[in-house]
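Format notes (please read before filing issues)

Several people have asked whether sequences and structure tokens are stored in separate files. They are not. Every record keeps both together, in the order shown below: the sequence lines, then the token lines. Line labels are part of the format and must not be stripped during preprocessing.
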Amino acid sequence: SIAASARANKSDVDACLDCGVKEVVIFTPFNGLNLKYRLKMSKEQVLKNVVECIEYAKRHGAIVDFVLEDASRTPLQDILQIFEAAAKAGADKLVIADTVGFLRPLSTRYLISHVRDGLQQVLGKDVTLSIHCHNDFGLATANTLAAVEEGVAYVHTCLVGFGERAGVAPLEEVVAALELLYNIDTGVDMKKLYRLAQQAEKSFALPIQFHKPIVGENAFSYEVDEHVEAMLAHPLLFEPFPPEMIERETQFYIGRSGGRRLVEKRLEMAGIKATPWQIDEIVRRIRSLQESLDKGGTQMTFYQIKKLMKELRRGLTEEDFWRIVEQVTRQKPKIPQQPLLEAKEP
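Then the structure lines:
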């Protein structure tokens, strides 16, 4: 189902309900850092707001997911306290959010097992847990899979991992791992993952890293002679799964680190007979041609593209910001204008 997210206040819940969604995701933090500097509320007030919003959404017939933000830096007793209140108020799923990517696979399993067992003791029943992992340390996929190993049935992902800062667990990585490594039917059509990722890249104007697992351009590419030779002998020697499963194909490149075996294969397929010396000469000339490319020009083009991408993401300049401020307030800034603010589209 399509869900909408809401802070723990009724106006946000109403906005979700007005959209006609059947599932509302209510989120709030509950640790000391957030209570003091972000929410500026007591624990009692946060608990009251959470319970009221969940009960309100349930009265309107919504499925309710309750997300505890920054759960990985929240004391266990506080997690149990707010999850117990949310469950008693009617929350259908309780979501552990690793908001700053603080968890590791082992600590993920530890946390989930203690939350599950603790809630079972106070509630007298099992609850439905979910996980939301950020990728600040590159562990979002690993932590998500660890949560599944610990019995979590619902996981939060995003296509290509797009999200705030370093993003969240990538949909394509989690799906491929669950389907192929865990033999779990996710219900996702893997053949559409690559095309969907390409569409996301186009829609968000965010380039996908070439070496990105599953959907990166280099994910099924080979250049080194030893790898090429092995792949030509049998694809599974260096491919974890057939790329056709996600509507991709194996690609070979003749590069500076290899190419002889690939040249031999290409000539054989074309019906051309060549002596070993001729093959060596073809490879030598290919490498020579690559070495002769204007490296300076190539690097300049790369940095120009990189700068352009940054400009596209920036949204507006520092000058634009202060001009808008002056137009609205009729005041000029009394501090030096520094590039501290960048507005960008979500």
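For reference, the curators noted about this record: The first strand starts at residue 3 and ends at 7. The mean pLDDT is 91.
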